[in-house]
Write a structure and sequence with these properties.
Layout lengths: L6 H12 L9 H5 L13 H34 L9 H8 L3 H16 L6
Helix pairs in contact: 3-5, 4-5
Amino acid sequence: MSEPRPAHHQADDAQRRLRPAALLFEPAEAARDENHFFDLESMEDPRQLLDRSTELAVAFAEAADRAVEYQAMAAAQLADPKRFDRLPVAAIAERADWSEDYARRMIEFGRDLLESGGADS
């Protein structure tokens, strides 16, 4: 059984979990190397590797959630009946590679987001 961590370390851990890792773009040469991923492969300390990979997993999940909100708002805008160039649900579904049912739900979700002030609220 491991020893409990001192209180100041526990506070650092809690704060680190609340803050997603920065998603920095990797240099082009690193991106071409299939074995390279945010320098994780070079980390030898498993504690450091677990911490950083967890930060990245949280950051990617939060980025994906946010991207979905922007998809929904864009779909709602494209389906807006006030637009002269509005798109039918089928066209939005095809463009986003969604089913029509999912497109309808995303349009509604996007309308709700737009009415409440967007993805940042």
